[in-house]
Each structure stands twice: as C-alpha cells, then as structure tokens.
Amino acid sequence: MSKQVTTYAGGQEYKFEKNKMSGARVAKNAVVYVILTILSIIWLFPIFWVVLTSFRKEKGSYTAYFWPKGYTFDNYKKLFTETTQLNFPRMFLNTLLVSIFSCIITTLFILCVGYCMSQLRFRLRKPFMNLAMILGLFPAFMSMVAVYFILKALGLTQGNMLYVALVLIYSAGSGTGFYIVKGFFDTVPKSLTEAALLDGCSMLQVFNKIVLPLSKPIVVYTILTSFLAPWLDFIFVKVIVGANADYWTVSLGMYNMLEKEYIYKWYTPWAAAAVVVSIPIAILFMVMQRNYVDGMTGAVKG
How far is it, in rounded angstroms, from Cα 286 to Cα 267? Predict the structure, then answer.
C-alpha cells in the first residue's frame, strides 16, 4: 500500500510514493518477535528457577512441586557462617584472588601481542599468526594432564604455590588469543602512529599514549573475558587442586555441594551460591556493557 506525497523545492513540484508497511511484513515481524520472546523465556527460566530455589525453605533436591512452600534467607546465611564442611567464603576469596591476577597478566599479554601483530611487520609474523589460529582450534583441557605433570615437576602443586599454578595456567598461553584485539587495533589510523614516530615517540610510547586511549572498548572487552575464564573454570581446578579443600574455587566447591553426602543439606545453599557468584559478573557487564559491545563491533570491522 502506498501514498502519493507532493513536495515543493525551488518552485518545482515533485511527487513520490511513500510506502507503508504491508500486512505480510507486519505478520512476519510479529512471528519473529513471538519466537524471540519464547526463546527469551526458555533462556531465563533456569535463572528464575535457581533464584527461586535459593530462597526455598525446604531442604533436599527432590520435590514434587515447583513453587516453594516457604521462603527464607537462611540459605544465604548458611553459605557464609557454616564453614566446617564447605568453606564458601574461602572458596570465593580463592577465586577472586586467582581471577584478579590472571586478569592482569592475561590482559597485558593479549594487548601487547595484539599490538605487535597489528602495528609491526617482521619476518615470522604470518607464521606465528597461523600457528596461533591452529592452536586455538584445540580445546585447552586437552593439555591438562601434561600441564599437571609439568607443574608437579616444578613443585607448584602443593600449598600456596597452587595459587601460582592456577594463575600460570590461565595466563601463560593467553597471548595466542590476540585475534580480536588485533582486529580492533587495525582500525586505529596508521597516520596517528606514524606522526607520533616522526615526533620522536618510541613504539612503547605510541602504544601507551595513542593506541590504548583510542582502544578503550577492546581493553574493557579483554578485561572482562580474562576475568571470566578463571572465575568460571572447573576442569583445570579439579585436576590441579584435587581434594585440597583449602584451595578450592567456587566452581569446584559448588560441584562438591552436590555430592551424595552433602546434597540434602547443601542443595538450596548451592542455589544461593550460584546467585552470589553471578552477582559480580552481572555488575561488571552492566557497568561495561557499552564498551563491551563497541569492542566486539570494532574487532569485527577490523
């Protein structure tokens, strides 16, 4: 369906057709929105169930009903007060400590490697990029047995050295994941860096004073992804830390809450722990969401 509209410019009369949205297009959009709404509900339902279970008054994991018969905050209180069997505050601090140090080292490695691959030209540049891409095709846990024995040979699998071992695992090889950062750095105008070099700046000064200030979105993106990896990981912690409960992270601790000897007493506190663990991540994403999206967009363009 269309409507004829007449306009005047410089004393001349112009006519054009203004198209209105057809009924078929409206119906198509309506179907798309309905499907997206259903998918959103399906995606949000497990989150709603976990939050609901975290306030459930009844113990145990098996119930014949969905809505709790009573609500309480005792599950959250139990997480931080009952530390004889499962010390959740210690697990949370362990995870926070490892995640912060891993995030700092990983971010530094990725930004530096991404800058070198984007701005510098050297003989082995392309072979290194191809090698990094090939290595990225293999999941990291394929190497966990070899990594464990290397760390054991270095004496990093006992006591407080476990913190060092976990930080090394998450950050040592992070430089090979530079492709997204490189894509964003490619969008920085070459003329700016060349002008700075002509003015006498070193490559390090160009990186610190020109490239990084223009690349805030990708820096935020790198920080978020670098923090999430150790915060959510389970496999490497299970292999490296094992049964040493003093060095468990939240993922390993929550896994043990569902063991046969703990599940009846710790099932609803497990749901509360899931909510508590997700709060820092949710806050980070809400605060840095705009920069996170901008970083992904710039990397795709690059």
Answer: 29
Q: CA-CA distances (angstroms) from residue 237 to 94, 110, 243?
A: 11, 23, 10
| Two structure tokens written together for 203 | 């490559």
pLDDT attached to residue 33:
92
**pTM given for the model:** 0.79
pLDDT tens, position by position, 7-49:
444 545 444 444 555 777 888 888 999 999 999 999 999 899 9
Q: What are the two backbone dihedrals, phi and then psi, of residue 9, each rounded to the nearest 5 degrees? A: -145, 120
Per DSSP, 7 falls in state E
CATH number belonging to the domain at 79-297, selected among 1.10.3720.10, 3.90.1150.10, 1.10.1020.10, 2.120.10.30: 1.10.3720.10
HSE-CB at 257 with a 13 A cutoff on CA atoms is 28
Alpha carbon distances (Å) from 25 to 20, 37, 39: 10, 18, 21
Task: Specify the pLDDT at position 300.
Answer: 46
3-state SS, 45-94, equals HHHHHHHHHHCECCCCCCCCCCCCCCECCHHHHHHHHCCCCCCHHHHHHH
- Of the candidates 281, 300, 119, the one whose C-alpha atom is nearest the C-alpha of residue 218 is 300
Asked whether 225 and 22 are in contact (CB, 8 A), the reply is no
Q: Is the pLDDT of residue 252 over 70?
A: yes
- Any idea what DSSP says for residue 209? I
Mean pLDDT of the residues in the chain: 83
- Among candidate residues 234, 223, 227, the one with its CA nearest the CA of residue 91: 234
Query: DSSP letters along 169-187, please?
Result: HHHTTGGG--HHHHHHHTT
Q: Residue for token digits 């703990």?
A: 262
Domain ranges of the chain: 4-54, 79-297
